[in-house]
Amino acid sequence: MITADDNGTGNGTDNGAGGEEFALLAEIMRRQQTWPVMSARYGVENPLPPWKTSLDGLCDALDRSGGTGAELNFSFKERRDEEDELSATRYASLPFPENQLVALAHSLLARGVIDEAELRRRLDSVRTRLES
Amino acid sequence: MPDHDPDHDHHERTVKPMVDEITDFEVLEIALRELCIEKGLFTAEQHRIMTEYAEQIGPTPAARLVARAWLDPEFRGLALRDPMAASKEVGVDWLDPTGFGTPSDFAAFKILEDTPTVHHVIVCALCSCYPRPILGNSPEWYRTPNYRRRIVRWPRPVLAEFGLELPEDVEVRVQDSNQKHRFMVMPLRPAGTEGWTEEQLAEIITRDSLIGVALPRPGVTTNVTTRTSPARRPVAE
Questions:
Q1: Contact A101, B24 (CB under 8 A)
Q2: How far is it, in rounded angstroms, from Cα B164 to Cα B211?
Q3: CATH number attached to the domain at B57-218
């Protein structure tokens, strides 16, 4: 019952968001603070990072917003398809759910929902807050 | 990276270790969420509701659905023919399961009926797709590469690792899920449950038996799962 084309990764069609590159996301990829690395370093057994459920909530809330079509210029299905495609291609070197998160960031940047400089500033301020 | 040796205090530890390092990904999740909220895409409360919902729902509706199907041939037919309609009968609306909506899950849902010669088990080989509206969040092992990769190739040995050893004359079918299609197993009603009520039957229809890594058995109930209760919200009184 396993079928190769059931995995929703599509066939590489470019819907307009996959072609761009974002230096910020490339930097995050290079630093590789992924959960498998972190959990091994700290001897933690949880297979998924603690932010995963919040990411689920974020995606669901965003899909709801996109579903209404009021604020976003792409539907939840388009975003989910894009997430699958980006996770399996550009961000395939990241594990799940890091690839899901970075793919979401990519979509929001590529669609102009969030600006890269704005995101960079916010990352700095969030990190400062968490480390304070 | 902080100068920290996680093994340093191993012998004294009484709680599970945690990652004492703030990662780029943790920061990224928070930053994206805050910016989306500030741009009015959703509210912090809406996000919290979605997260809470995903974490708290248990398998009860799915267990009731299967128990009713065991008792009522007409309902069983509905469950197999129109599982979303059958879900509604046990209080789960796939189009609006939280009252707020989890549209990412509504796509398509199918119930896989076991027979004396066919046993089903579900997986998401790609990531962690799971019938959340009716089964709750997936168990952690379901999301591991260990399960996802191996159940597809070696279903019998992997099922045996869960303690489920099936006779050779029972065919094992592994059903892959994806973001558009979700599945759930309807296991066979076990012997020794003759005359049982729907409530009694629902108690032995565990989450794992609905995934397909276990079979329902009299005496083995869902009561080992974490007890949760709905959050209390302020009332205007």
A1: no
A2: 12
A3: 3.90.330.10
Q: Measure the CA–CA gap between B148 and B132, rounded to whole angstroms.
A: 17
Q: Is B169 helix (H, G, I), strand (E, B) or coil?
A: coil
N- to C-terminal Cα distance for chain A? 51
- pLDDT tens profile B73-83: 999 999 999 99
**What are the residue boundaries of the structural domains of chain A, listed by start?**
21-131
Question: Residue A19 has which token pair?
Answer: 């072609």
Say which of B18, B49, B103 has its CB closest to residue A42. B18
pTM to 2 decimals?
A: 0.53
Pairwise CB contact (< 8 Å): B50 & A57: yes
Looking at the complex, report in whole angstroms how far the Cα of residue A67 sits from the nearest Cα belonging to chain B: 8
Task: List B119's β-bridge partners, or say none.
Answer: B172
Tens digits of residue pLDDT in A15-52:
455 578 999 999 999 999 999 999 999 888 777 788 88
Instruction: Give the separation between CA B99 and CA B93, rounded to whole angstroms.
Output: 9
Q: Do B19 and A45 touch (CB under 8 A)?
A: no
DSSP class per residue in A18-44: SS---HHHHHHHHH---HHHHHHHHT-
Which residue in B has a C-alpha nearest to residue A106's C-alpha? B32
The interface predicted TM-score (ipTM) is 0.84
Other C-beta atoms closer than 10 Å to the C-beta of B146 total 12
CA distance B144 to A60: 22
The DSSP H or E segment spanning B109 is strand B108-113
Q: Which two tokens stand for residue A54?
A: 């919040």
Interface membership of B154 toward A (CB under 8 Å) = no
For A38, the closest of B19, B31, B35 (CB atoms) is: B19
CB contact at 8 A, B177 and B153? no
